[in-house]
């Protein structure tokens, strides 16, 4: 697999469109951090880490509001072929603050709002709204 983040986002997008209650994703430290941020921001109802096999699995429980998924859109920004970076002053706002942009900084993964507060920039991974 050349782009594990795109695979992560696609699995969540497909499960939300099919109205699944949960989705299983192969685990990695990056995916665990992404999942934790999505949970903190209120896009997921919960998640569990299963330590089975050599890699483990993340079981993500999707959140719905009266049958409508909490995640209405996911978009990959930086790809393996074209990396996108931004300083703390240049971090983009997703839907004028209604969504989040996840940024990979030297201090770890964080949302765009948190990166602005801590005044750090980094690689723009994805947008969620």
Mean pLDDT: 95
Strand content: 25-35%
Q: What is the terminal-to-terminal distance? A: 26 Å
The helical percent reads 25-40%
Gyration radius, to the nearest Å? Answer: 14 Å
Low-confidence stretches: none
Largest sheet: 5 strands, antiparallel
Structural shape = globular
Count of helix runs: 3
SS-derived structural category = alpha+beta
Order of helices and strands: HEHEEEEEEEEHE
Number of strands: 10
What does this structure look like?
- The strands form three sheets. Strands 6, 7, 8, 9 and 10 form a five-stranded antiparallel sheet that branches. Strands 1-3-2 form a three-stranded antiparallel sheet, with helices on one face. It has a two-stranded antiparallel sheet with strand order 4-5.
- It contains three helices and ten strands; from the N terminus they run αβαββββββββαβ.
- The mean pLDDT is 95.
- It has 129 residues and is an alpha+beta fold.
Brief digest:
The chain contains three helices and ten strands; from the N terminus they run H-E-H-E-E-E-E-E-E-E-E-H-E. It is of the alpha+beta class and 129 residues long.
Features:
single chain, 129 residues, alpha+beta, five-stranded antiparallel beta sheet, three-stranded antiparallel beta sheet, 3 helices, 10 strands, globular
List the helices and strands and how they pair.
Layout: H1 4-17, E1 22-26, H2 29-40, E2 44-50, E3 57-62, E4 64-65, E5 68-69, E6 74-76, E7 85-86, E8 100-105, E9 108-111, H3 112-118, E10 122-128
Antiparallel strand pairs: 1-3, 2-3, 4-5, 6-10, 7-10, 8-9, 8-10
